[in-house]
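New to this. Please check this protein:
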Amino acid sequence: MLVDHFPLVGLRLTTPRLELRLPTPEELADLADVAAAGIHDPAVMPFLVPWTDRPPAEVARGVIQHHWLRLGGWTPQAWQLNLSVFRDGEVVGQQTIGASDFAVTRTVSTGSWLGRTHQGKRIGTEMRAAVLDLAFTGLGAEEAVSAAFDHNASSYAVSRRLGYIDDGTKRHAVRGELSVERRLRLTRADW
């Protein structure tokens, strides 16, 4: 069985309303459709790489290719797990957790997105809490880091609700304009 060779396919994180796991090929297509339908106001870019600026079919294909790329490049030294988020059996978004040299740093990073129709329902907080529990309880992480641009108030609010503290800023050029990234950090003790 595949799970015998790649145990991540058997990983399931559950919360009162959500299930986070790797998608089947058909569910990956559903996730791609959610992204193609829109995940943010097109006038504002919440991502460092403006991958959602492409036509819907290219956004969908990019979601699929990125998923396969991350799974195919998995190593204990550098990994990124893109979990599909399901609510009542429906794919609503993606929650990512990853690390570089985790055995030494004990630090994970997180990122996520939700389809626009699923936003504003505290799903983002619940799905982030699920991977933080995996990180701190399951993997023995010492800290988790995340970031959001100044204009992404909802992402920043999720981090603050979960206990992250500010950890500096970084300036980026996104779409040829200045975007200020607010870095955030959560320690095991604060979790």
In short: Residues 84 and 105 are 26 Å apart (CA to CA). The chain has one domain: 2-187. The first strand starts at residue 12 and ends at 14.
